[in-house]
Structures are given as C-alpha cells and as structure tokens.
Amino acid sequence: MKRATVAASMLLGLMTVAARAESYLFAYFREPGDTGIYFALSHDGYHYALLNDGSPWFLPPAGQKIRDPYLTQGPDGKYRLVWTWDWRGKSIGFAESDDLQHWTGTREIPIMADFPETNNTWAPEIYWDTMAGKWLVLWSSAMKGEPNNHHIWSSMTADLKSFSKPSVWFDPGYVTIDQTIFHNVSRKDLAAWYLVFKDQNQDPLRYQIRVARGPSVQGPWSNISGPITPTWSEGPSALQVGDRYVVFYDYYRPPARFKAVETTDWVHWSDATDKIDLPHGCKHGSFLKISDEVAGRLEQRHGAAKTASR
C-alpha cells in the first residue's frame, strides 16, 4: 500500500512539473531608476517572488538610470535587454546575456540622433521580425515643440549596432506611448499579433490601455479596442498563463501599484488585480517565459550586483 502511495505521489509530482514546463520572469525597476534591474520569479504566472534576495541583477552605467526595462530572448538563444536611458534625451540603453546573470555589451544607443528636437525616448522594446530577418525596435518620442504629442516610433537593425532612420510607426490619431506586442499562437481562432499600448490623450483625459490586432509584428493594426483599464494606467505587459491572456499594468495614482486584467478572447476583459502578487515598489517592466531549468539557476543566485561590462 505504501509503495502504491509513493508511486502515485511521484507520478503526481512528475505530472505537475510537466504541466508547468515554464516559469515566468519579471524584470523591473524601482524609482528613481538609479539602482538597477530587479528580477522576480513565478511558477504560476500570478505570484512573483524576489530573486537575489531583493538585490538588483546589474547596475546602471555611472551617472545614468535604468527605467522601463524590456527583456527578450532572440532566435539565437541570447537574452537582450533594452531600457529608457534617461527621462529626457535621444537614447535607449542596451545589454545582452547568455544566462541572465552575466551581462555584457552595455551601451547607449542614440537612436533619435537624426532628430535634434527630440524631447524624450521612452520605453523601448525589441522584437525579432522573422520575415525581415531583423530586429524591430519600438519606443515613444515627442518633440520639444510638442512635448506632450507622443507617437510610437520604430527602427530596424540586423545587429543592434547599425539602425535604420527612425519613423513614426503607429499613429491612431491621438497621443500614444508604452507599446508592447504579444504574438498569440496557441489558438487558431485567435492567431494574430496584438499591440497593447497606452492612450496618452490629455483632452479629454484618458490615460488608459487599449489593444489593436494585426497579421504580423509590423501590423497593420486595426480593430482598436475601447479602454481595458481605468484612467492612470501605463506600462502594459502581456503574458499568457494557461488559457488566459494577462495584461499587467502600472497604476500610478494613489494607492499606486501594479494591477492586471485578463481575457480568454482578447475582447472581453475582467479585472485580475486580486489574483496577482508582485514585489512592492516595482515599476514598468516586462515578463518573459523561461524554462524551469533556467529558473532554478536564477533562484540559486545570491550576490551583489555589478555594472554590466561594455
């Protein structure tokens, strides 16, 4: 009887591990943005525990900040991280890693250098465009003459060193920032790319998250939704957890905290804030699925952060 019980328990454990072949990594920053990148880990997609005893994983270059980090894994298996270099300026930050622990290639990328009137370059993200064989780089910028008139811009690059001249990439007719893209491949009826972004319109005041749908990472984008979050929402990140699609976002009015909404069809959304648990003080970041093997190695890390090497 004991053998049968033990065998059943072992089988259940193996089934549980197999059912969650992936873990979820949350990369984020804390205000005022000068303390580095932080990681938190989840095994269910909703509850996240601090890694590295709550210490950052690497520090910003001297005198600089790291805000709005976006973490992704390329087709070559290497991890890339981009971030807002500063509150004002024409640059984004970049670093890369083979293991999420040792970071190299840290550099400032003056991606808006061709536009001297650029006021800011916020919340960059990068996506591998399979059809083009290049990286699509996205961010939001406004010009000094119109500091509140943000648009989402893009540039293409094959090597993350040489970049095409930027141009406005998405303009629905009102001010937009904080774009993120989710590619749904798990259900044929929902097979599409989804652009999640902040409606930054000020008159009338909206500051809400919306969703558009397209056939590729480059769009074209249509079927723009109504708001899926309340006013004072920004910094969305989309993640699939089981049969649900979760959009986490930064609610930045008191009591400020991360919140979430979820859907099964990208049309009907419900509040999921009571289901999530994220580290206190976390700000605009990104979520990445990683293997349990990689997660296990990250959980073993206990050490002081270093500035990523150039």
From TrEMBL:
Gene3D superfamilies: Glycosyl hydrolase domain, family 43
UniProt keyword list: Hydrolase, Signal
Signal sequence interval, chain numbering: 1-21
Keyword Signal part of the UniProt annotation: yes
One of the record's GO molecular function terms: hydrolase activity
Coiled coil location: none
InterPro entries: GH43_arabinanases (IPR050727), Glyco_hydro_beta-prop_sf (IPR023296)
Stated name of the protein: Family 43 glycosylhydrolase
Organism: Terriglobus albidus
